[in-house]
Amino acid sequence: MSLMEPQIRGIALHRINAMVLRYWYLLVSSWPRMLELIYWPALQIITWGFLQSYISQNAGFFAQAGGTLIGAVILWDILFRGQLGFSISFLEEMWARNLGNLMMSPLKPIEFLISLMVMSLIRLAIGIIPMIVLAIVFFKFNLFGLGLPLVAFFCNLIFTSWSLGIFVSGLVLRNGLGAESIVWTLMFGLMPLACVYYPVSVLPYWLQLIAWCLPPTYVFEGMRALLFDHVFRPDLMLTALAINAVLFIVSFASFLGLLKSARRAGSLISGGE
Amino acid sequence: MNPAMTLDALRPGSAQITEPPGSAIDVAHLVKLYKTNRAVDDISFRIARGSITGLLGGNGAGKTTTIAMIMGLVLPTSGKVAVLGHPMPAESAQVLGRINFESPYVDMPMRLTVRQNLTVFGRLYAVQDLRARIAQLASDLDLTDFLDRASGKLSAGQKTRVALAKALINEPKLLLLDEPTASLDPDTADWIRRHLETYRRSRNATILLASHNMLEVERLCDRVIIMKKGRVEDDDSPQQILQRYNRTTLEEVFLDVARGRNREQAS
Question: Is residue B165 a contact partner of residue A39, using CB atoms and an 8 Å limit?
């Protein structure tokens, strides 16, 4: 009953499609899920947008670099929602107690992870596009006005979000739903060090050393350089990309290690907490 | 090459797969330790292709862990498992497309309809002419009336039938079933058993089932492996086991084993 399907280096597209279809069915079957994707980003942009409007009326510094806060909010949401989109799709399998079915099917871990990446992009698009439109309509801030550098910002942020998503999913796989809270909180732990709303120079020297190990720090510094000084810093983006590559490899290796450990501990059949 | 050993279909990821001769499942000195608990304790058995084997035992006897190790969901502490001639989990990629399973420890996604679930799993297994396959399974397992209902809104019996449909979607050569008729009324359970028998005969498939239902095992199985505290307590055809224990039903044998009466005491 099987047929030959196209594969790239042993990765079968039909299995990735099957998983994306599974998450798509789930997403469209539940309007609260869909609404939640749009609701929080919209609330974020409205709150921060009005704050930026108020500050820029009263402080010359912010008036000079209109949109810094709004830009930071949107880029932060790409990072945050990218990771959440990845991890929530993974958690759906844990909640549904479906992981055993998947792990016993021909689906390979890499195919599973690719499908989660695709879903993170889809979920991100559903949440971010209305956010960008609201920023244009209410606050006259057009994210696409950043031009080509936006592509570099986006790629770096999404790679970081996937790396963290892969690592956290591995932790949940190994430790069960008791580790679920890491999914929701990990990114907030990075926020102060990623210097989303302020320059790295604000941090004490020893924290700056840690901050420069995180790819998002380079993106937010790059965004400020673009908005304040109207300069695109490719050096920052390339360094971020290099750190992201290392982060991605380490996360993937960790996921495989945690999966093996889950098989050893019997977590795939016990699931739960 | 023996033509009987050649699969009738091309599989994803390989030009053409040939099945090595030998048993469907080969378990050798399998041990599973969870910290200090010996869930499975040095068991060995071979299961012939085309047979139905029952794995019997009380709660905590090690049946589910054994099945999970055969499937590759749990890694053994020591010992070896080969499925359809391939060592697991090293060569699992060559096996997983040709086996399937059903277990009460695993659910189908509840928000998806039955049809959506079967479509997703059919695609995962690269099933050709999937619509026709789903229609066939719906007809065989009487799912037609609720194909477009969310899986979470089905009765226990309906859910079991859907799980069985998922387990049969790729027409597996080896089917692993953990309590396949648990929570079913006698009529539906009987109907499922008949379906499994027909499936085995028509596809020469191998079935390994763990069950607490002694009547089911007596009726379906060519062979029974009785487990207790992680070890194989007995292993033979149902008739031979009944004779050995001088009992008329497997339920009586089960009670003998569970209560620690050996064959001599029982007889």
Answer: no
Closest CA to B115 of B181, B174, B169: B169
Token pair listed for B256: 């003998």
Q: What residue spans of chain B are helical by DSSP H?
A: 63-71, 114-124, 130-140, 156-168, 186-203, 214-220, 238-245, 250-258, 263-266
The complex's ipTM works out to 0.85
Distance (Å, whole) CA A75 – CA A45: 11
Interface test with A, best of B77, B101, B110, B123 (most A CBs within 10 A): B123
Question: What is the residue type of B207?
Answer: I
pLDDT computed for residue B5 by the predictor: 36
Beta-carbon contacts of residue A154 (< 8 Å; ≥ 6 apart): A78
For chain B, the residue count is 267
Of B64, B65, B124, nearest to A18 by CB-CB distance is B124
The reply to whether residue A104 touches residue B96, judged by beta carbons under 8 angstroms, is yes
A105/B contact by beta carbon, under 8 A = yes
Preceding omega of B89 cis (within 30 degrees of 0): yes
- The pTM for the full model equals 0.87
pLDDT tens-place string over residues B19-74: 556 799 999 999 999 988 899 999 999 999 999 999 998 888 899 899 999 999 89
The single-letter DSSP state of residue B112 is S
- How far is residue A205's CA from residue A231's CA, in Å, rounded to a whole number? 25
